[in-house]
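Re: export button greyed out
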Amino acid sequence: MGTVHNPVLPGCYPDPSICRVGDDYYLVNSTFEYFPGLPIFHSTDLVHWTQIGHVITRADQLDYTGIASSGGLYAPTIRFHDGMFWLVCTIVYPDQPNRPGNFLVTATDPAGPWSDPIWLGTAGIDPSIFFDDDGRIWFHGTRLALEPQWHDQTEVWVREYNPVTQRLSDEETVIWRGAQLGVVWAEGPHLYKVDGRYYLMTAEAGTEIHHCVCIMRADSVTGPYEGNRANPVMTHRHLGSKVDVVGAGHADLVQAADGSWWAVLLAMRIYGGYHYPLGRETFLVPVTWEDGWPVFAPGVGRIPPVVEVPFADAAPLGVAQGAIGGVVCPDDPRWNTLRGPADRFATISGTSVRLRPTDDTLSDPGTPAFLGIRQQHRNVDFQVSLNPELSAGQEAGLVIRQGERDHVRLGIRPTAEGYTVNAVHCQAGVEHPLGSAKVGHGSLQLGIKARGRDYALTCTRIGAGEIVVGHADASTLDTIATGGFLGLWFGVYIQADGQPGTGSVSVDKVEYLPVPDSEA
Ligand code: 6LW
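Workaround output, generated via the alternate export path:
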């Protein structure tokens, strides 16, 4: 017996999709403007998850140009069919909402490489793909209703996919417009066939506190779909905002080899008031079937904090699935850049990475010299040893990143008397100083000590004590404060005023050290 301590993937891992091949499970999440895009996780028991690769790994695979934060890659679906992995997704260009962004990629090895995209010519979000047992393939997705009855009403459409021509049929059926009158954003559709009946599962009411999971069924893939009287079959919205987990929704179902059923879904852990700096995370819930309908978390009706998986090996106590700790090496798959590969600005030598500025800064929707990892724990020390060799106008250091317009930088700048370190909050695009100190020359260590909402921004010089340069507040950086879809990332960066300049920074050691709640 193995035990999942929810969330199964802590940190910003929203919109999970899952499939099984024999005894192997594969899971994928949205990644928005981050690169590489769409991480693939593998598990043999639903408890222990390891990242094995990414789907979007090549600069020429997708065009991320100009995609503002919280645009980009939304809600993928992964399936296995006919010896191949199929993944459908959308790239969203926030300034071009009608640009058709739905695409299909395939791979024989889920670790990659994945193919170049086949563009399906359809707009809207949250595509999914269903392989019927008669060999037919059905593509489905969500869009704002063409003839809406209310604001933000969406519709789920289905079209047949022809794998020979790699095109969708012109014939389209709208199969769902929401389980309740007035409901917004019926989205994240997935079709399944169970015991000869077609099931449509959707997320509804928006990916915030009212989020929920609904289930419908039909005798034909194109409907008509009948909603379950128990809808929504999973939600936390009736619990109010004073609970530990909110926003349960956007689920995908999988049947285990032993016949048991499970759902992965997103939800948010709140702390420090009604805020969720870690973003939307991936949770696991057991599912049973009664009278031809799925029951989520039977007898409990909400995401259980702990889930027993009968066919899993016992996990070492205290180890959270997918959680990270220790030293983060340059080739670690957790690293992300923005909108393009790191080879534009990073050179790896051994365990060090040298960063040189690009033409972009962290305030631009481009590819600044930034390497980041998700904040996955509310209490954690992120500390980085830097050896700066900066030229005039350059700045290098750590960042707590929500997006271009909202982030906190702890950056070193050269002056006539050596370096100064400055803490700055860029809030809705406006910079506010949080503190500064003189730090002389040479190597130093910068740190973010996250303790709930409070981030202490620290600087330690070799042979000298640690100073706290300033504090930042997580509740000014999460999506409750800023809008958008993302949790926070911690990163290292170098940028310049104007021209990039000739200097650089060597990042010699990066540590991400979760602090147990009892010691925080
Ligand atoms: C995604 C939508 C949603 O496309 O949020 O949770 C959007 N639901 O389904 C971005 O993650």
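The chain has two domains: 2-309, 326-519. The button fix ships in the next patch.
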